[in-house]
């Protein structure tokens, strides 16, 4: 008997008897008595059981109940010793697999990175390096050590042709403070030997130099913290009066600083608008109405200074002028923030946030693979297989998790999916909001990846993988940084009700998701890659975390909504760019726009009733006995207009209005059985936007990818990425100018890359407080087979049902392919644990654990900035810290 039918008898009398047995306590001692107790106490057993149809999680309860009906455990006495009656699910452990090839995109191990670091330190290299954790702005220090992606031709020769594994290379970014330049070096071959050399890696950038003024955030942010303290320490009486707090550069500071970006236009200078905030939980939502523009150009902090200050829309040339206006009582004051607000509104505490909801004391449903996990992982090679898919994982400091060599049913469909950049551009009346454009690659999505909260960020039964990076302050490993899980989409992927033979049935909509989450200062980015049984891959980005709060006053209404007494959420755009290197039936692919257009057409068979003649005209023509046929035979309808986009001159694209059409990547030389080129379509999902503001110096040339929904280029090894970690500060002269990829090259049967965007126009509302919601702040795209196959290949799935109608009086003919839902109790969940960052010093030795203050410094980038932390910091363990 199939499990599906097991559900049904619960509606019959014997099941009700079973339930009442449980309810009256006659059945007890089931494997998980706690769960049963809940059933006993509940008046809504049936609701729970209905929920069970959707969520296997509660099936243990169901199992116990259905056991009553099973002939082989038919008595109460059996149930009372039910550990025998309901066995533990045994096969839930991860199954291994051996990757067919080595993962050539894998990150460097701790050992490899430490050896490279020592090699760079050797005097023969002539780099004059200072240990990164101790370096001041004017020292030379390592910023990054990372594996370098092999050339695609070498990779394919290895993967497909049995050629030797490509030689391994690393690259290392060194901030040469002594000469005010940054150099990205290519180092190899690895492992280190006599043959290993290093040279500047310039061919992937669009300017010969990387200006020091565009540098990333050094681990030693002391200088910036000192500057803030130097500016606001002497103003302590003023800030106390206006805002009720002080920023003296001490551990007990009640005000902290928060920087913004971009800090430069072309790299000739570095200047920052710094905002101040109350140093309370949820500080991102406690901005103060004072903004300071600092010049922090070059490497000599002694030259850094205030350019101007703005308080409540009044501008001052210096802190002294500001103080003078305050002393003279000339300040037009803005509303002072509430200081005695103990409501915790900006925290995640449930206190003051509503009342208990019915049944909410119960643990909600959870996802359990009763029959064992259905995917395999090669942990060493970071290789995953599931339901015809296979792929390798990579991980990098800049953008985190990436996917390589994605096969479906034995064929490569995508060579690479890598996130490229995540931008956020803000609006507002104050200088902080109005000038902010964050490009989070600079802060490092990989560097900011966080340990997942098991059971909250991903299902408890997910497989969790670690991630390691090697940056200025040494190496660090996040446990549980990546999760892999199969989920029940809870809707059939396909279904039909029918009456003729084999017309009726359904396929369960199972999906495999790979997820990692990066918290970059205030914001949390959830990166999802979801594989589906028909060959579809969904790329999804969801956001949560704190808004970058602005100071509310009535003049701000055009730019957001008030969310508290003096706080608003500011209007902003998020645009996140992805590189998708399709290889559909080989590397030679073409791009087709298959658009819907209207046509006016006449057909001889068109009934004149439906022709295009106005009723008045028709009446008159009939009066004069005219022949109506020629003019009444036209009508309009839509048609598909297929247009190949032949060159890069035409390949910066928007999705058509009203979804009228789509873009397809196909191999014109490979056809399915019906003569159509085998392809994959790019199917917009939620919120596929591009940047709204297309006319802004702050986004002039550094985010050109964000100005279209998607773009297609011919693939080149020297165009690996649409952005770089320095693009954030170089809108006028970026290290990577995406438009330079477009030089008229042919896209006709070439190796193509699709650069597509996800994002949201984020109009903050009260419900963004305390933190933004992932249901609305989400964006997705589907990459879906488009005549790639001859039919829907998810029909292979055995987790499917075929139903045939019975003869009168007989039962329906059920075929579930022999797949049975096991009758077992899932293993007990482990207590929730959380580890935190595992850090290694630059010499590769484990660093002592960081305290909370230090972890905050590590975790909160320039978006938050905590100046007092910078002053008191033992920087040796700090991963990456902002200048303020
Ligand atoms: C950090 O920078 C400051 C000022 O630039 C310098 O005095 C200090 O030695 C550096 N190192 C540490 C570990 O703070
Ligand atoms: C080495 O770097 C230091 C700063 O860390 C600088 O003062 C010194 O001049 C540099 N030496 C050479 C030989 O470049
Ligand atoms: C903050 O700390 C400093 C130095 O430890 C001390 O002098 C000052 O009184 C403290 N301020 C407050 C408000 O506790
Ligand atoms: C700021 O002040 C200027 C005059 O100095 C005025 O034109 C402008 O409207 C004010 N802006 C806001 C947002 O109050
Ligand atoms: C990176 O390298 C480390 C050390 O070899 C390893 O533990 C980790 O799992 C690797 N994977 C990722 C995704 O960082
Ligand atoms: Cu947002």
From TrEMBL:
How is it modified post-translationally? Answer: Topaquinone (TPQ) is generated by copper-dependent autoxidation of a specific tyrosyl residue.
The GO annotation for biological process reads: amine metabolic process
**Keywords, in A-Z order:** Copper, Membrane, Metal-binding, Oxidoreductase, TPQ, Transmembrane, Transmembrane helix
Q: State the name under which the record lists this protein.
A: Amine oxidase
Give the note describing cofactor binding and stoichiometry. Contains 1 topaquinone per subunit.
Instruction: Kindly list the positions at which 2',4',5'-topaquinone occurs in this protein.
Output: 523
* Residue ranges annotated for the DUF1965 domain, each copy included: 285-336
Which family does the entry's similarity section mention? Belongs to the copper/topaquinone oxidase family.
Which Enzyme Commission number(s) are listed? 1.4.3.-
GO CC field: plasma membrane
Enumerate the spans annotated as Copper amine oxidase catalytic domain: 366-794
> What is this enzyme's class at the first EC digit?
oxidoreductase
Necessary cofactors: Cu cation
Q: Please list the residues that make up the active site.
A: 440, 523
Q: Which residues cross the membrane?
A: 44-65
> Could you state a single Gene Ontology molecular function term?
primary methylamine oxidase activity
């Amino acid at each position: 008997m199939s499990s599906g039918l097991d559900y049904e008898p619960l509606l019959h009398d014997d099941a009700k008897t079973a339930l009442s047995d449980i309810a009256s306590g006659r059945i007890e001692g089931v494997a998980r008595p706690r769960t049963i107790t809940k059933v006993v106490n509940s008046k809504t057993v049936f609701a729970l059981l209905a929920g069970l149809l959707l969520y296997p999680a509660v099936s243990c309860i169901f199992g116990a109940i259905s056991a009553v009906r099973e002939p082989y455990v038919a008595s109460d006495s059996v149930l009372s010793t039910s550990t025998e009656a309901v066995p533990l699910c045994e096969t839930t452990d991860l199954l291994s697999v051996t990757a067919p090839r080595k993962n050539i995109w894998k990150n460097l191990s701790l050992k490899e990175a430490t050896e490279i670091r020592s090699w760079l330190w050797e005097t023969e290299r002539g780099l004059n390096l200072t240990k990164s954790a101790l370096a001041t702005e004017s020292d030379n220090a390592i910023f990054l050590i990372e594996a370098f992606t092999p050339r695609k031709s070498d990779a394919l020769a290895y993967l497909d042709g049995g050629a030797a594994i490509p030689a391994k290379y690393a690259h290392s970014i060194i901030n040469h403070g002594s000469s005010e330049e940054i150099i990205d070096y290519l180092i190899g071959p690895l492992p280190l030997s006599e043959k290993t050399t290093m040279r500047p890696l310039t061919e992937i950038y669009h300017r010969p130099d990387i200006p020091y003024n565009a540098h990333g955030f050094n681990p030693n942010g002391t200088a910036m913290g000192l500057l803030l303290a130097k500016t606001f320490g002497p103003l302590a009486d003023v800030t106390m009066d206006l805002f009720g707090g002080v920023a003296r550069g001490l551990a007990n500071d009640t005000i902290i600083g928060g920087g913004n970006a971009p800090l430069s236009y072309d790299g000739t200078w570095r200047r920052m608008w710094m905002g101040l905030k109350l140093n309370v939980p949820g500080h991102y939502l406690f901005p103060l109405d004072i903004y300071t523009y600092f010049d922090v150009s070059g490497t000599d902090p002694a030259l850094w200074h205030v350019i101007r200050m703005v308080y409540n829309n009044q501008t001052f040339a210096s802190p002294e002028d500001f103080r003078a206006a305050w002393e003279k009582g000339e300040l037009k004051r803005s509303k002072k923030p509430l200081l005695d607000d103990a409501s915790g509104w900006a925290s995640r505490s449930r206190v003051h946030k509503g009342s208990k909801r019915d049944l909410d004391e119960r643990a909600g449903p959870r996802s359990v693979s009763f029959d064992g996990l259905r995917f395999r992982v090669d942990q060493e090679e970071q290789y995953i297989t599931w339901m015809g898919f296979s792929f390798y994982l990579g991980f990098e400091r800049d953008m985190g998790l990436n996917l390589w060599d994605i096969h479906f049913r034995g064929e490569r469909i995508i060579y690479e999916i890598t996130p490229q950049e995540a931008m956020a551009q803000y609006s507002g009346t104050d200088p902080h909001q109005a000038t902010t454009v964050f490009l989070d690659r600079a802060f490092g999505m990989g560097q900011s990846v966080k340990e997942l909260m098991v059971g909250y960020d991903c299902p408890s039964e997910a497989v969790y993988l670690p991630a390691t990076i090697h940056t200025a302050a040494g190496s660090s490993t996040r446990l549980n940084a990546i999760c892999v899980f199969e989920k029940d989409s809870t809707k059939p992927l396909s279904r039909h009700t029918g009456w003729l033979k084999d017309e009726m049935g359904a396929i369960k909509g199972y999906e495999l998701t790979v997820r990692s989450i990066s918290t970059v200062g205030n914001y949390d980015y959830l990166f999802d890659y979801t594989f589906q049984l028909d060959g579809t891959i969904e790329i999804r980005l969801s956001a949560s975390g704190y808004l970058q709060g602005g100071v509310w006053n009535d003049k701000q209404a055009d730019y957001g909504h008030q969310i508290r007494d003096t706080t608003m959420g500011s209007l902003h755009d998020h645009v996140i760019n992805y590189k998708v290197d399709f290889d559909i039936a080989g590397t030679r692919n073409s791009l087709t726009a298959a658009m819907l257009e209207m046509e006016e057409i006449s057909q001889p068979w068109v009934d004149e009733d439906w022709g295009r003649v106005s009723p008045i005209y028709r009446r008159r023509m009939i009066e004069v006995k005219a022949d109506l046929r020629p003019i009444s035979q036209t009508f309009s309808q839509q048609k598909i207009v297929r247009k190949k986009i032949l060159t890069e001159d035409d390949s910066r694209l928007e999705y058509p209005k009203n979804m009228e059409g789509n873009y397809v990547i196909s191999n014109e030389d490979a056809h399915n059985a019906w003569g159509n080129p085998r392809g994959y379509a790019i199917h917009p999902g939620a919120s596929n936007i591009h940047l709204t503001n297309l006319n802004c110096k702050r986004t002039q040339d550094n985010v050109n990818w964000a100005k279209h929904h998607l773009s297609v280029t011919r693939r080149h090894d020297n165009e690996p990425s649409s952005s770089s970690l320095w693009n954030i500060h170089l809108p006028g002269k970026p290290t990577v100018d995406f438009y330079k990829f477009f030089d008229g090259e042919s896209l006709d049967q070439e190796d193509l890359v699709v650069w597509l965007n996800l994002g949201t126009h984020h109009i903050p509302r009260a419900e963004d407080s305390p933190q933004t919601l992932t249901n609305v702040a989400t964006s997705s795209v589907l990459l879906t087979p488009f005549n790639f196959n001859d039919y829907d290949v998810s029909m292979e799935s055995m987790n499917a049902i075929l139903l045939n109608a019975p003869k009168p009086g007989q039962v329906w003919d059920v075929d579930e392919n022999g797949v049975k839902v096991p009758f077992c109790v899932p293993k007990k969940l482990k207590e929730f644990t959380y580890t935190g960052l595992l850090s290694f010093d630059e010499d590769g030795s484990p660093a002592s654990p960081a305290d909370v203050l230090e972890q905050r410094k590590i975790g909160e980038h320039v978006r938050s900035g905590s100046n007092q932390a910078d002053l008191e910091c033992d920087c040796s363990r700090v991963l990456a810290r902002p200048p303020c």
